[in-house]
Amino acid sequence: MKLMFISDIHGVSTNLAKIKKIFEKFEYDKLVVLGDIYYIGPRNKMIEGYNIREVKRFLESMKDNLICMRGNCDSEVDVETSNFPIMSDLSLIMTQNHDLYITHGHIYNESNWMKENSILIYGHFHVPFIKKIETNYYINPGSISLPKGDYKPSYLVYDENKITIYDIEDNVIREEIIN
């Protein structure tokens, strides 16, 4: 199973056409959105490309291949008005080789996780990383719209035993084989 992960769109449509093009070119099975879909939030300043209607159109165009989690900036109204399911706090994707736990990251993350020998994939922090701590992997694709630090917008690809984080210019940020 080949999965593409993005997180923290925050209503910014700027990079979504490129994400769709990459998704279709490499024929990924699912696009997993890890929350914070529409609302830019009070901590972030308004940026060019903020267009929640375009974000909604993009997600609706992907709905047959979409898994979408609810983030801390996603409201009940966002869930009700979206024509695709938005799941809550924690979900599981079972692949041939791994169980992938997915969440937004504001509740479950490397500081608050209870399952050993697991892979937890989450957004929220806007910083891409792959960390192995004891028996667990903690993986973050970063933000596709509002990256923090010196990172560019980024996304993650899961291809059975390999995890790769790319920036929006398709440079590899981090890659790891997961056993």
Keywords:
179 residues, alpha/beta, Purple Acid Phosphatase, chain A, domain 2, five-stranded mixed β-sheet, 31% strand
β-sheet strand percentage: 25-35%
Can you count the helices? 3
The CATH homologous superfamily corresponds to Metallo-dependent phosphatases
Task: Count every beta strand, where a strand is a DSSP E run of 2 or more residues.
Answer: 11
In the CATH hierarchy, the architecture is: 4-Layer Sandwich
Low-confidence sequence ranges: none
Structural class by SSE content: alpha/beta
Shape summary: globular
Oligomerization: single chain
Indicate the CATH topology.
Answer: Purple Acid Phosphatase, chain A, domain 2
End-to-end Cα distance, whole Å, is 15 Å
Estimated radius of gyration:
15 Å
Could you give a short account of the major beta sheet? 6 strands, mixed
* Overall average residue pLDDT: 95
Task: Write up what this structure looks like.
It is a single chain. With 179 residues, the chain is an alpha/beta fold. It has one domain (2-177): Metallo-dependent phosphatases (Purple Acid Phosphatase, chain A, domain 2), CATH 3.60.21. The chain is built from three helices and eleven strands, in the order βαβαβαββββββββ. The protein has helices spanning 16-25, 52-61, 76-81, and strands spanning 2-6, 30-33, 66-68, 90-94, 99-103, 119-122, 128-133, 136-141, 154-159, 162-167, 172-177. Strands 3-2-1-9-10-11 form a six-stranded mixed sheet, with no helix packed on it. Strands 4-5-6-8-7 form a five-stranded mixed sheet, with no helix packed on it. The longest helix has 10 residues, at 16-25. It starts with a strand and ends with a strand.
